[in-house]
Recover the amino acids of this structure.
């Protein structure tokens, strides 16, 4: 499979971010804790250079806990402020205020020297599609400020949100980048739902996940579905279809339905806590 998805609104959103960055003190970048490197848009580093940077490892509850710790350490060593969060439950959200204060200390002191007091920190919230930006903002603000949805492309335009007298957020649409040099990155993004399912072959995608699971999390699929994992992922998919009674007319097994179940249950954490990559320390 070839992975690519870069609709016109992403080009427009990127230009908008480049224009707005001059108003910004801090870039808050959300990444998916299951694939922190693959879920980082390389364009963000160019747009946000010379700005304070905070990386939020979102959906940390879905990722392998031991890998979370490695990633937090890795990002800290690269010079980023980092917080692990679960935007849905609110875990880690309380830590963010203190980290923002620390990240913007230079800006605050510079303002004070110029006689500018109490100017709010302006932060741009960025990330790829479906990484959870809107859910994070609503959780952080403790109210529904933005529209959310468990699919890419819900946020289409920018939105300023005043959280307090000391902090304003600029919400931006999720953007990918024009070309994935490494198709493994595209595969990982497709697995977590950052590329529209409608343009993908779900059965093939699901088999790639089963192949990965057999190699890195052997036994988890067998336990979840009460089956014996096979060497060939298609055979495993047939076993899952049988176990979950995914049938077409005439009692034929419905592979597409089984594939969709596996993908959905991976994405919502029902199979278990799974990371698709880990840092090279």
């Amino acid at each position: 499979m070839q992975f690519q998805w870069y609709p016109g609104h992403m080009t427009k959103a990127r230009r908008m971010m480049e224009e707005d960055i001059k108003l910004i003190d801090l870039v808050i970048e959300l990444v998916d804790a299951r694939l922190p490197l693959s879920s980082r848009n390389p364009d963000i580093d160019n747009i946000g250079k010379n700005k304070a940077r905070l990386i939020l490892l979102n959906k940390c509850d879905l990722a392998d806990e031991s890998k979370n710790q490695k990633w937090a350490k890795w990002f800290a060593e690269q010079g980023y402020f980092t917080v692990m969060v679960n935007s849905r439950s609110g875990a880690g959200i309380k830590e963010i205020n203190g980290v923002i204060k620390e990240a913007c200390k230079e800006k605050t002191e510079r303002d004070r020297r110029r006689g500018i007091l109490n100017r709010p920190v302006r932060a741009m919230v960025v990330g790829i599609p479906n990484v959870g930006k809107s859910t994070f903002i609503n959780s952080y603000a403790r109210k529904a400020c933005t529209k959310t949805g468990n699919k890419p492309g819900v946020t289409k335009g920018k939105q300023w949100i005043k959280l307090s007298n000391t902090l304003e957020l600029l919400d931006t649409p999720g953007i990918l980048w024009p070309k994935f040099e490494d198709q493994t990155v595209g595969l990982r993004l497709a697995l977590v739902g950052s590329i529209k399912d409608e343009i993908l072959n779900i059965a093939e995608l699901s088999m790639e996940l089963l192949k990965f699971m057999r190699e890195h999390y052997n036994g988890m699929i067998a336990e979840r579905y009460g089956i014996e994992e096979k060497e060939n992922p298609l055979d495993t998919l047939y076993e899952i279809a049988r176990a979950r009674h995914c049938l077409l007319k005439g009692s034929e097994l419905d592979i597409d339905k089984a594939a969709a179940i596996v993908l959905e249950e991976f994405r919502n954490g029902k199979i278990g806590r799974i990371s698709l990559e880990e840092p090279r320390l």
